[in-house]
Amino acid sequence: MSDQATTDASATPTPGGRAYRKLWFWILVAIAGGIVLGLVAPGVAKNTKWLADLFVQLIKIITGPVIFCTIVVGIASLGNLARAGGLALRALVYFLLATIVSLALGLVVANIVQPGAGFAAAPSPADLKQAQSQMGNATQDAGVVEFISKDLFPSSFLGPFVSNQLLQVVVLAILTACAISMLAPALRERVVGAVDLISKVIFALIRIIMWAAPVGAFGGMAYTVAVFGGGALGNLLKLMVTFWATCAVFVVVALGAVAAWSGFNVFKFIRLIKDELLIIVGTSSSETVLPRLLTKLESAGASRQTVGVVIPTGYSFNLDGTCIYLSMGALFILQAGGVHMPVGTQIALLALMVLTSKGAAGITGAGLVTLAASLQAFGGEFFPPEAISIGIAIVVGIDRVMSEGRALTNCIGNGVATMVIAKLQGERDDARFQAVLDDPRLVDEAMLALSHGSTRDTATEPAHT
Questions:
Q1: Is residue 35 within 8 Å of 218, Cβ to Cβ?
Q2: Taking CA 268 as the corner, what is the angle to CA 406 and CA 213, rounded to the nearest 5 degrees?
Q3: Residues 267, 274: Cα–Cα separation, whole Å
C-alpha cells in the first residue's frame, strides 16, 4: 500500500484498531446522545432536526451522479446488451416476487392482529394539514399515464439530477449505457473509463461526507424522541409494533430462506452492513447509505456490473419495507374507520399496490405519499376522499418511526437481492464473500482500495490481517 493510502487509512475506520476509530462507534454514540437529549430536554431536541436534514441534503447532492455513473459503467462495461438484458430480467423477476411476498405478508398480519380495530383517537389539526399536503402530492402523481410521462421519463438530461428524481436518473442511465454499448469497442472503453474515473471522484467525496453521519444521526434521533417518544405514541403503539415485527419476520424468514438458498447466512449479512443500518436508524432514509452500500457489496465479492444494475434499480423497484407498510397501512385505515373489506377485494388492492409501490423512492416520507396515491387510485366505497384524508392524518403522526422500519427493511432487501442475483449470474466471488461474512473487518480494506481507484479484481482479492 502506498504512503498516500496509508495516510488516508489512518483517517478512515480501519479493519483493526480501537473502536473509537470506527464510524459505527460514533454513530452509536450519536444515537445514544440524541435519545438522552430528546428525553431530558425535548424543547431543545425539537430544534435539532435540521442536522439530520442537512446530512440527507448532502447525500442527495451525490446520489443522482452515483446512480448514473454506477449503472452506466455496470451495463456498458459488459459490452453485450443481451447479457445486460439477462441481468435486468433476473433482477426484475426477483423484485416482482419479493414485492408480492412483502405485500401479502402485510395483509395477512394486518388481518390477524387488526391493529386499527377499536381505534378512537382523532387526528390533530397539524396532522390533518400535513395529510392534505400528502394528498395533494399523491393527486399530482396518481395515474399510469402521469407516472410514465412525469415520473418515469425525464423532460431534460440534467433535470433528474437537479430535482433528484432517482427513477428518472435510472432510466436516463440505462439509455446512456445502451448508447455507449453500441459504440466501437475501443471508443466504448474510453468512454466507460472516463465515467468510471468520475465515479472515483464521487466516491472520494462520499468518504468525506460520511464523517457527518454521526451528526445527522444525533439530530434525527433527538428530534424523533422529543416529538414521538413516551406517551405520544400511545394509541398507535400497536400498529408500530406490528409493523416492525412483520418487517423482522420478513427479513428473518423470507430473506433468510432466500439467502440460505443462495449459500449465505442472513444474520452474518446484516452484521456486514451494520454501519449502513445504524446510519439509517439515525436518518430514517435508506438513500443516505446508497453510495456506501454500492462500494461495500462490490468489495464483498459481487461484480461491479451486478451491483451497478441491481442496487440503483432496487431503490425504486424493490422496496420490501415500503410494501409491508402500504398493505398494513391501508388495512389499518379501514379498521380504524370500522370498515370491513372482503378477501377478494384485498387481493385486488394488493395487485394495484404491486404497481404503485414501484414509484416509491428510498427517501424519507415517500412511503406516506405512495400510500395516499394507492388509496386514491383504488377509491370506491372503501376509500372515499374524506376517509383517505382522515386515515393519512392518523398515520402521519408516527410516519417517522415507521419510516425507519421501512428504510431498514428496504436496505437489507436490496443487499440480499444483489448478492443472490450476483450468484445467479455467476458473478459472485464466494470465497471472498464468505470471508467478509465471517470477518466484516476485511471489507474495509477493499473499500479503501476502491476509493483510491484500484481495479475490481484487486479490490476483491481476499484481504489478509
A1: no
A2: 50
A3: 10
Instruction: Report the alpha-carbon distance of residue 260 to residue 268 in Å, rounded.
Output: 11
Task: Give CA–CA dist 304/136, Å, rounded.
Answer: 40
Q: What is the pLDDT of residue 419?
A: 94
Neighbour count for residue 358 (Cβ, 10 Å): 20
What is the CA 293 to chain-centroid distance, rounded?
10
Between CA 407 and CA 288 the distance in angstroms is: 10
The domain spans of the chain are 3-459
C-alpha cell at 215: 451528526
Q: Which string of DSSP letters, residue by residue, matches 352-367?
A: HHHHHGGG--SSTTHH
Topology at the third CATH level for domain 3-459:
Proton glutamate symport protein (1.10.3860)
**CA separation for the pair 460, 465 (Å, rounded):** 15
CA within 13 Å, CB half, 289: 28
> Closest by alpha carbon to 65, among 202, 212, 236?
202
d(CA 211, CA 213): 5
pTM over 0.85: no
Amino acid letter, residue 450: L
4-25: per-residue pLDDT in tens? 333 333 333 444 456 666 766 7
The full length of the chain comes to: 465
Position 108 scores a pLDDT of 92
pLDDT at position 453: 53
Contact 62, 291 (CB under 8 A): yes
Q: What is the pLDDT of residues 345-377, one digit of tens each?
A: 888 888 877 766 665 554 445 566 667 767 776
